[in-house]
Specification:
Rossmann fold, two-stranded antiparallel ribbon, 205 residues
Amino acid sequence: MRPIRLALFDMDDVVYTYTRADRIAHIASVTGLDPVFISERIWGEGLEAAADGGAFPTPELYIASWRDRLGYPLEIKDWVEARRLGMRPIPGTLALIERLLAAGTTVGVLTNNGPLVYAYRETLAPDLARLAGDRFLVSSSFSTLKPDPEVFHRALGRLGFRPEESFFTDDMPVNVEGARAAGLFGAVFTTPVALEAELVSLGLL
């Protein structure tokens, strides 16, 4: 078996807990709009899924789509603050990433997100951005999203690794299945302790 040289992590609910309700609450406080209306217009009608898949390739096009859907001139700074308030670090996962790096494994991120998460990654996820460096990838950059196996092929092409030397973890089983279909080793994330055991079994720790 070819040694695993790359460990790819999902971001939300793997490295940071993500609470959409907290994010929506901040947007509601800024705009005066009803939280249910915000949720339906942005998530219920598929705008975020489209954005994750690359429908709005620049930050300007992306925020314009929010403004159009909400009928409100939402500023980028308020969008970023809302996203930040919906995230909390998971210390155990961050510690595992640091251990992987210390052991010589390359670490990257592949998250289903759009261009504003990428542009403001150092504000939203400062610890992860520091550890991943230029290997912090968002699905919108590849014009598709997890669980499509193609997003993994494109991401690995960007990073310069082969599937059989790469590992991926995500809290959503369907995304892990997409990674495995692309030829990567994969594990469903439940807790940092369980992930540590998986990494040990693969000889990464």
